[in-house]
Design a protein that fits this description.
single chain; about 300 residues; nine-stranded mixed sheet; 14 strands
């Protein structure tokens, strides 16, 4: 599908939308199309809420954020998000905070259709003071000392739609990722619907030749969208590098609401799609982000004679 058609079909006002990709393969192009289509009252679930979330907030798309980290990826701050949380400016933002592992456990519970997922790492944490959904249950089995044991649990997350970016997929939706893999597979399995955005579509034979890279199988995918360079300013391993200059500039852009609005008007509302956004960045920018070869050694899977 085209990005426009996929977002129109699967992202609706009031939906819970998961956007996953950890440092790498962030679905920026999808976030921009959600902005262009004027979606409202979204609950956005993203472990590392970063620039694309800041942009969606500024565009008025998001009313609730579920995350375990917020920030401009070591390059500064997120102006719109800080204004919302610290001063409710221009409107308050409901914010649910978890640890990274707590979010992983929520995805696992959602993917496995479990009512909760146990973890020990909240013991001694003050996150339990700010998030009432971090609760304790009594284990049905005795603890190491033979006495009843109380364990923290987190609830499942069940997005209406998960959107992930990946390097490649075949036309059926068998999706391959390498490099930082994050929790994309778990996030897809936890969702009712899934959109996979890829750098390229390849023949089924390419996927079959390297099956261990298939993190998301076709039966879990509802739409495949081809959007080259769709993770910018993050990177896609083997395709283009991280745009560190853009990350550094974002703190200054987002610090001023007027300047942020001008950026959205020019770069998101002012472009018809991500291809036009990429063309606007210019070939000089893409040349700066070009990557060299670092080939993986081939393996011989063998076949029956």
């Amino acid at each position: 599908m085209s990005m426009r058609d996929a977002v129109a079909a699967f992202v609706h006002d009031g939906a819970t939308v998961c956007l996953e990709g950890f440092t790498h393969l962030i679905p920026t192009a999808a976030g921009h199309e959600i902005i262009r289509q004027g979606r409202r009252d979204l609950t956005v679930v993203r472990m590392t809420a970063d620039i694309v979330v800041d942009q969606m907030l500024a565009a008025g798309c998001v009313s609730r954020l579920v995350s375990s980290f917020v920030g401009n990826s070591s390059a500064g701050s997120l102006g719109e998000l800080r204004r919302r949380i610290e001063r409710a400016d221009p409107a308050p933002l409901a914010f649910e905070e978890y640890s990274h592992y707590g979010m992983v456990c929520r995805y696992l519970a959602g993917a496995q259709r479990l009512p909760f997922y146990p973890l020990r790492s909240y013991g001694g944490s003050d996150l339990t003071c700010v998030n009432g959904d971090l609760r304790k249950v009594t284990s049905p089995y005795p603890g190491p000392d033979g006495e009843p044991e109380h364990v923290y649990v987190v609830p499942p997350v069940r997005p209406d739609v998960t959107i992930v970016h990946a390097q490649r997929a075949d036309r059926r939706g068998n999706t391959q990722i390498w490099g930082l893999t994050g929790v994309q597979a778990e996030a897809v399995y936890a969702a009712e619907k899934a959109i996979v955005v890829v750098e390229e579509v390849v023949d089924e034979e390419v996927v079959r030749s390297d099956p261990n890279r298939t993190l998301i199988p076709a039966h879990a995918v509802d739409a495949v969208v081809v959007s080259p360079r769709g993770a910018h300013p993050s990177f896609a391993q083997g395709y283009y590098d991280r745009d560190n200059a853009f990350y550094r500039s974002w703190s200054h852009i987002s610090a001023e609401p007027g300047r942020l609005r001008e950026w959205l008007d020019e770069w998101v509302y002012g472009t018809a799609d991500h291809a036009e956004y990429c063309a606007k960045l210019g070939e000089e920018s893409w040349a700066r982000l070009a990557v060299g070869e670092a080939l993986s050694e081939p393996v011989d899977y063998g076949r029956r004679l």
